[in-house]
TrEMBL record:
It comes from Wallemia mellicola. This is rRNA adenine N(6)-methyltransferase. Residues 22-32 have a biased composition (Polar residues). Its EC number is 2.1.1.-. The lineage of its organism: Eukaryota, Fungi, Dikarya, Basidiomycota, Wallemiomycotina. Keywords: Methyltransferase, RNA-binding, rRNA processing, S-adenosyl-L-methionine, Transferase. S-adenosyl-L-methionine binds at residues 42, 44, 69, 90, 118.
């Protein structure tokens, strides 16, 4: 039987669910099982695509897999053919019931654990090896995987690739789903860097927020945007105060920033062509001057 997270059950119990509306994109076939309005459900129906996703994951017989939103189990079935076990989390109790019935009485049942709840609120099981194979809207996926100098390279790209190696695996057209969504999809592989860079995400994100405000402008130009110097000076004084160090006002913040940009060689660089290592080098130089972004 599927297990339920307490908070998720209270929010998504059967008694609280409105009747599913027929979907105009379902090709004329109304299926009350799908609730695209409440849960955004689009079931992967193409077995070749499901198999390709599992093959790209390079699963081993000793692997434990955690699947988010299994739906009716088209992908789950193929995961169980390869992996040791699979734990799934499904927000819709109706889908969880369908999934449970699909494997009831089969050998795979003992290797499948179904949890009803919201993945965002769930306590995740321990995994010794973490590789995420995720499907996103095509444009979002391409931005995750984008490289410096390309049209898609953006703050999201840099922030995501700070801690992970991200690769585009395959495109999945909307015709492979039932009902078909409005957008195309892509599958990406995300592998955390080990060890991760020793930097707080808030600091890195603060720097990229400044530099990607106008990604094709120079770093020097982006730091002159309204409020940036005031924010950096406020952060510098707060940092020094917290460390009980003397605040040196002999050089104003504008001069400090200009000096750092020139010394690091990034004054005329543009975020559109800078990579993660460039941002880390620049951030380190600012930290050396007690200038912080988070």
């Amino acid at each position: 039987m599927p297990k339920a997270l307490k908070s998720a059950t209270e929010k998504f119990s059967r008694s609280h669910q409105p009747a599913a509306k027929s979907d105009s994109n379902s090709g004329g076939t109304s299926n009350p099982l799908f609730n695209t309005d409440r849960f955004g459900q689009h079931i992967l129906k193409n077995p070749l695509v499901a198999q390709a996703i599992v093959d790209k994951a390079s699963l081993r017989a000793t692997d434990k897999v955690f699947e988010i939103g299994p739906g009716t189990g088209n992908l789950t079935a193929r995961i169980l053919e390869k992996a040791k076990s699979c734990q799934v989390i499904e927000m819709d109790p109706r889908m969880a019931a369908e999934l449970s019935k699909r494997f009831q009485g089969k050998p795979e049942q003992r290797r499948l654990e179904i949890v009803i709840g919201d993945f965002v609120k769930a306590d995740l099981p321990f995994f010794d090896v973490v590789v995420a194979i995720l499907m996103f809207q095509r444009e979002f996926a391409l931005r995750l995987c984008a490289r410096p100098g390309t049209e898609m390279w953006c703050r999201l790209s840099a922030n995501a690739q700070l801690y992970s190696k991200i690769d585009h695996i395959m495109k999945v057209s909307k015709g492979n789903f039932r009902p078909p969504p409005q957008v195309e999809s892509s599958v990406v592989r995300i592998v955390p860097l080990d060890p991760p860079p020793p930097v707080k995400f808030e600091e890195f994100d603060g720097l990229t927020r400044v530099l990607f405000t106008r990604r094709n402008k120079t770093c020097r130009s982006n730091f002159t945007a309204a409020g940036v110097y005031d924010m950096l000076e406020s952060n510098r004084k707060a940092w020094l105060t917290e460390k009980n160090e003397m605040i040196d006002d002999s050089e104003n913040i504008k001069s400090r920033v200009e000096r750092i940009l020139v010394q690091t060689g990034f004054a005329e660089s543009r975020a559109a062509k800078m990579d993660v290592d460039d941002f880390l080098k620049l951030l380190s130089a600012f930290h050396d001057e007690n200038i912080h972004f988070g």
